[in-house]
User: Fold this.
Amino acid sequence: MSDRLYNGVMEGHLAAVERALTSYLPKDDSQNTLYQIMEYACAAGGKRLRPVLALEFCRICGGDVQKALPFACAVEMIHSYSLVHDDLPCMDNSPTRRGRPSAHAAYGETMALLAGDALLNRAFEVILNPENRQGLPEKSVLLAAFALADAAGAQGMVGGQYLDLQSECKSIDLYTLERLQMGKTAALIRASCEIGCHIAGADDEKLDAARTFGTQLGLCFQIVDDILDATATSEQIGKPAGSDGESGKATYVSLLGLEEATGLADKRSEMAIQALAPFGGEADGLRNLTRALQRRKK
Assistant:
């Protein structure tokens, strides 16, 4: 089987996000440094996994992908903000991200902090802008906005980061680690899938399936991240390799060992694929994506 991440349709989603993302960021003629940092943070590339998932779930649920595009870009803004803040000296203190200086390394800690805050708020400005929600039922917009806010807050990413910091240099069990990563990594991936369903007006069966898929894919994604941190080079992953171990962070590898962590990633991957049953053959691209992410080397 090919390790290609996206099929042709999802490559189209990726291209649409790349074209649209910066157009939703604020701009003026004053060369505002804050705006420059926001764009710098979002322009770092990467897989754009979360917005692609939002668009693909909208598509396979019969929705208008174009109407979901502002929501997909908002998801990527939230993700970009989280990376800016994760890299800060008071958090993970990472000097690089995706093979180039992290936002604080390029612009300073204070400006990076403000740019992250601005991206977080800009995401909701975009999805609540009347121009960006034309033709969509109000209920769908509110449900999508709530899913994004819930994933970004104390029950999701912020809560996961809190647990991550609290667990440094401590012995924790698998339950606590999974709870941590359910918030820090899986929450936004799950919300991305859910948002696509809301914009398409999907039924409860498909919505529940999308949530389960997103959760399992998110956990699998993090396990593979932990494996790569322990086994890959800095050049391969675009950030300092081995940094989790050096900072005393609990990871799947430190807790389970490499072999058992790999087995758990396999299990999570299969659970994600099984969750796609209600979508039938329309979800074959997502099945292939799941397997490719499980085998990724960066």
User: Anything to note?
Assistant: The domain at 8-295 is CATH 1.10.600.10 (Farnesyl Diphosphate Synthase).
